[in-house]
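FORM 7B - TANDEM STRUCTURE REPORT

SECTION 1: FIRST PROTEIN
SEQUENCE AND C-ALPHA CELLS:
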Amino acid sequence: MLAAESESPHKSGGGRLSCCLVYPNRYHSAMSNLGFQAVYAMMNAHPGVVCDRAFLPDREELDELERTRGTLLSLETQRPLSSFDLIAFSVSFESDYLNLPAIFRLSGLESFAGSRSPLQPLVLAGGAALFLNPEPVAPFLDLVCIGEAEPILTPLLELLKEGAESRQELLLKAAALPGLYVPSLYEPRYEGDRLVAMNPRPGAPPRVARVWDPDVDARPSVTEIHTDATEFSGMHLVELSRGCPRACRFCAAGFIYLPYRGRSLDLVRREVMKGVEQGRKVGLVAAAVSDYPGIGDLCGEIVAAGGKFSVSSFRIDHLDGGMIEALKASGQKTVALAPEGGSQRLRDLVRKGIDEEQILAACDMLISHDILNLKLYFIIGLPTETQEDLEELVALVSRIRERVLAAARANKRLGEIQLSVNPFIPKPFTPFQWCGMEPVKSLEKKWKFLQKALGRVSNVKLQMESPREAYRQALLSRGDRRLARLLVTADRVGSWKEAVREEGLDTDLFVNRDIPLDELLPWDFIDGGDAGRLEREYRRAFRGE
C-alpha cells in the first residue's frame, strides 16, 4: 500500500481525453521527480483532460502480477492501462528504458508501436532521456516530446481532443507541431554497422527542433503532491532555474536546456514560503544552486521565517557565506562539491573553470563554518586520463582530508570525506558525444588503484558506480533503433548478457568507439541549436584550450 498523499489535482468525468502518466520506475522515484509532478498537474489542469498515474510495481507486487498474469492498473481509478486514450511515459534516465517492455507486457500491449491495434492507446514519451536520444526506444512510441513540456503539452492535448479520421492522419498532424517527433515517419538506413541516413517520410519535417519554455515564471515547478513514500519525504521542492550557465564539456544539462533561464526571486520566494508555512523542509533545485542571484539572502529568509532548507550541491567557485550559515542553521551536516577532474589538466579538459586553490579555498570556507562532512564528486575514465591524473586525484583528496582532520581535532568531533567516483559516460548533445567510454576492465583497474590508495584511509569513504552499469547506460545513451529488440529480448529472457548474445549485437561499437566527426549520429535528426558549437568545443578541448 502507498502512503497517503495530500490532495492531488486529479479530477474525473465522462467524455474527456483519458490519459495515464507512467513513470517507468518505482513510486518513490517518480514522486521525487519534479518533471513528473509538473506534467501530471498540467495535464489535469487542461480542460477536457483527465490524467491518472501508474508506476513500475515494486518487487513483491511485480512477482504477484507475473504469477497471476494480472494487469497493471492506474493508481487513481484502478483502470487497466490499455483502457486509456493516451499512455504518456515520463523518462528521466536511460536506465529506465529497460523497464518499458515490462510495463507494456504487464499492460497487455505489444512493445512495438507498429504491432498494436489502432483501437489501443497512443503512446507518448518525454523527459530528459528522450530529448537527448530517443532512438533506442523509438520503435515503442507513437509520439516523443523533444524538449520541455510547457510549450508542447497544450497544442498536443488540443490536437488529441480534436482527433482525426485515422491514427496515421493524427500522427501526421502531430508531426507538424513544434517539438513533436513521430518515429514511424522516419526510416533509418544502415550500411554494415553504421547508421548512414534517417529518411523522413512525406509530411515529416527533415529535423525536429528541440523546444524550450520561454517564460519560466508563467508556471512554477514545485512539489504538487506530497507523500511520505519518497526519498524527499517531508520536503517541498522548488526549482530555481532551468539549465546551467557553465557548459562543462561532459555534461548534458549545460546544453539541452539552453538557454539558461532563472526564475524571478519574487516567484521563488512565494513558492519557498508556501513550503515553510506547511512546516516542510524546502529543497532548492537547480543544476547550479549557488549561481542563482540572491541565493544567500533567500536562504537567510527561510531560516528567519523558522524554516529549513536543503540543496543538492554547490559550485566550488561561487560559495555564499550567508547561504552556508543558513545551511548550518538548517541542520545540514554534509555539503557536496564537484571537482570532477582529479588533476588540473582534466579540469581544464572538461572546462570546469576551477583550480586546486579554489577547491581548497571552498573546503576551508565550509570547514570554517563548522561543516566538516564533505562529499566530493569525481569522474574517472575521462578522455586522455592517465595514471598521473589519478595520482593527482589522490593527492588532492589527501590535502582536503588534512584540513578536515585539523578542524575536527580543534572542535573535538569527527569529520568525514565521502568520495563519489563515477565513470565517464559520453552523452548526446555535449562536446564529448564523439568520445568513446573507457573499457570496463580498464575502469575496474583504476578503481582498484583508488581503493588501495584511499580505501583504508580513516575518515574517507569511497563509493563508485558499477562500471558495468555505466557501460549499459552509455549503450542506451549512444544507441540507435537496433537496441529496441535487445530491450524486449532482455525482458523476455531475464538476462542482459544472454539478450546481447541472442541478438548478436556488438555493443562495444556503440560504447567504446570514438566516433568520427563526420559520421551521422542517431540523434542528429534533432535540431538542438548551435550544432557547430559542440564541434568547436570538442576541438578546443583536445587542443588544451
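SECTION 2: SECOND PROTEIN
SEQUENCE AND C-ALPHA CELLS:
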Amino acid sequence: MKRIRNFCIIAHIDHGKSTLADRLLEATNTLNQREMQSQVLDDMDLEREKGITIKSHAIQMNYVARDGENYTLNLIDTPGHVDFSYEVSRAIASCEGALLVVDATQGIQAQTISNLYLAFGNDLEIIPVLNKIDMPSAMIDEVKDQIVDLLGCDHDDILCASGKTGEGVEEVLEAIVNRVPAPKGDENEPLQALIFDSVFNPFRGIIAYFRIFNGTIRKGEHVKFFNTGEEYDADEIGVLKLKMQPCAELKAGNVGYICSGIKDSKDVKVGDTITSVSKPCTEAIAGFEDVKPMVFAGVYPVEADQYEDLRASLEKLQLNDASLTFEPESSLALGFGFRCGFLGLLHMEIVQERLYREFDMDVITTVPNVSYKITTTMGDVVEVHNPSGLPEVTKIEKIEEPYILAQIITKADFLGPVMKLCIDKRGILKNQTYITQDRVEVNFEMPLSEIVFDFYDKLKSISKGYASFDYHRTGYEVSKLAKLDILLNGDPVDALSSLIYADHAYDFGRKMCEKLKELIPRQQFDIAIQAAIGAKIIARETVKAVRKDVTAKCYGGDISRKRKLLEKQKAGKKRMRQIGQVQVPQTAFLAVLKMD
C-alpha cells in the first residue's frame, strides 16, 4: 500500500485535462504508440466531437520514480463542465490527492473554484499545475499569483507543464509520488469497497468499478452489496488499464472492477459499499453525496409502440450515468413517455444524443422546467415537476420556486453586460470581488428556472467566451408565477405548457405563438394558435389554410356559380376543422427552447 497513489485531475472545461492525462500515460509507458491517440480516456465519439469529458474514467499506471521504487498510480479522470459535478464528487470520494489544472492562457475559472471546494471538503492533497505554458498568450506569472491567492501555497509549489509538448510531465509524476499520501486502510479488516462508477456490457451484465478502503477481495468470493442487500459471486475481478486486466485478488488501497453477472440495473447503486458475506463490515462508506436533478423534461418515443424499448434504453443508460432519474408519465399530445430529471441543459442534450447513438432511439423532448413547491389552501405542500400537474388556481395559496447562488467570473470589461443579463433574469446581486485587476467575481441569487433556457449561451456571447459560470442550490422562495398554456384550435397542448414569472408571461406567450406559426405546417383548414393564462387569452396567431382554387373551372357565367362552389368549400373546411388533428413537429419543441 505504501507504493499506491490514488489521484484525480480537476479543472474547468477546456483547460487541457484530457491532453495532460495522455502525456502521463505516455510517460509511464502504460500504452504503446499503436494504442495511443489524442484524448485516449474520452472513449465516446460524443466526447471527442464536443471536446469535453462527460464520463469519469479510471486507469492504472506503473511508474518507476527517481528513488528507484516502482509505484502504482490510479488516475480517476473527471469532467469539467458544471453539469457533471456529480461525477467529480464520485472521483474525489475515491482519491487521496488531486491535480488542480489551470490554463495559463485563461486563468482561474468558476468551475475550478467549485471543484476545489469539493476536494477541500474531502481533505485531498492539492497539487496545482499550470498547463499550456507553451502557448504564446500564456500569462504564467499572473496566473501563478491567482493560484497563490486561491490556495495560499508558495510559488514554488506550482508546477508548470504543457499537455501538448509534454514539458514538465516528469515533475508532475514525481509530485504525485512525493506529495499525495498513500492510502490508509488494513487489508486484514472486513472488506469495504466504494462503488464509484458502473457500466453496462451487453454480454457480461453490469460491471462495477470500485475503490477498496479496507480488506481484500478475491476472485470467486461471495460478496454482498451493502445498501441493496443483494449477494453475488465475484466471477471476475481485476484492474483497469486501457482494457480490463483480470487478477486473482485486490487489496486495500487499490482501484478495480468486478463482474458478477448482474442483469438488473436496480441492484447496483453508485456510492454503495461492497463487502464480503463471510466477514461483513458493520457500516457503509460515507462521503458520497446523492445526486439531485435540477431540470425536468418529458422524453417520449416518436412511435407509440417503442415505449418499452425506451424504458429499457433509459435503464441501461442510467447504469452509465447515475445522475439520470426517470419516472413514467403520459401526455394528451404525445402519449406515454417518461419524466426525466437532468443536471442541466447540456446533460439533457447529451442524454438525448446518447439515446439516439447507443440505442437507436428517436425521442421527442418537451420544454424543460424545474420542480416547484405548491402550498394549497388546505395547507398541503406538493412538489410539482410538470406544469400539467399544477392544482387549480383557486386552490393554490403560494408557489415556491428553487433559487440558486450563481458565481460568475469575468473580465472587468464585460462586468456591465453580465450584470444586466443577471438582473434581467431576476437576479439579486449579493457581492462582487476583484480577484485580480481585470478579473472580477460576482455572486447573484436568482431563480433556477431563469438559467434553464439560454442563460449559459447568452453569458458566453456577451463576454466573448471569457465568463465562466457555476451555481449551487440555496433553497425555495415564494414567487409570482403563472401557468401559460398553448392552445391549438382550442385544445391545450400539455407538452408546451410552462410555469413562468407573471410579468414575463405576455411577452413569452406572444413570442411562442409567433414561433409556432412559422413551424407548424399549413393544413387544409385554419389553425388558431393561442397563449392563455387560465381562461384569459393573451396572444393569438393564425396559420392560414392551404386552399385549392375551386373556382378555376368557372370562366364567365353567373357569380352564383362561383359562390356555390366557395360555400361548399367553406362548409367542408368547417367540418374538417372540427375533426382535424394538428401535428406539432419535433422542431417546434426544440425551437421553443432556443427562443430569444
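SECTION 3: OBSERVATIONS ON SECOND PROTEIN
The radius of gyration is 28 Å.
Residues 295-368 form a domain with the Alpha-Beta Plaits fold (CATH 3.30.70.870).

SECTION 4: SIGNATURE
Preparer initials: ____
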